[in-house]
Amino acid sequence: MEKLKRDNFWFGFIMGLIIPVVVFSIAYVIDDYFSKMKEVSTIVQDSTKYIIGVFFNLILFRIYMVNWRMDRTGRGLLAITFVFAIGYVILFQVMGKKFLLL
Predict the structure, then answer these.
(1) Range(s) of the domain holding residue 64
(2) What would the DSSP string read from start to end of the chain?
């Protein structure tokens, strides 16, 4: 737990990059498993899985900014969350295409 208590912008940025990708991948595998059981193409849209992944960044952001008061790490998390938010708007709203990280 002590290794996670670093007050560094790049640590927050990298952590904020990895966590949503992992959560999206887990959500994708779970959706694929259940959709094969029900014999449908998909149960949850890719855009929803993307949002679920980014949501975990907000939880981490709150922990680092409020509970642990580590501003630099929180800023890194916030920066990559904005990048993901802009990516969401471009990929799913503007282009209207499905986006797959795997």
Answers:
(1) 13-94
(2) -GGG----HHHHHHHHHHHHHHHHHHHHHHHHHHHHHHT-S-SS-HHHHHHHHHHHHHHHHHIIIIIS--HHHHHHHHHHHHHHHHHHIIIIIIS-------
Query: Is residue 16 within 8 Å of residue 60, measured between CB atoms?
Result: yes
Domain membership of residue 47 (yes or no) is yes
**If you average pLDDT over residues 48-64, what whole number do you get?**
93
pTM of the predicted model as reported, rounded to 2 decimal places: 0.83
**Do the Cβ atoms of 99 and 46 come closer than 8 Å?**
yes
pLDDT tens string 57-78: 999 999 999 999 999 999 999 9
Number of domains in the chain: 1
Asked if residue 66 is part of any domain, the answer here is yes
Is 73 inside a domain boundary? yes
Whether 1 is in a domain gets the answer no
